[in-house]
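Is zinc ion placement plausible here? Inputs below.
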Amino acid sequence: MTSTQTETDECTWLCDYCATCAVGPDCSRLDVIVEPDEIEWRGGAVVTARYRCGCGHEWTCRWSSELLHPQRGI
Ligand SMILES: [Zn+2]
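Reply from A.M.:
I modeled the complex. Tokens:
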């Protein structure tokens, strides 16, 4: 485990899991976290994040743009 991990990393909250690596026999979900390679927001309610894992698997995930506002209240 690396020592420095900043929770304020702007992409950390958009991390997703590589579905290909996650089914590997020696992998736990935490081993296959991938940060978005590209984030696309066209001003609407949905943010599209594009992921590219080291294994070659690529996928996209759509997030509500509400997630972009950490201080949106409870
Ligand atoms: Zn992978």
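Short version: The chain has a mean pLDDT of 79.
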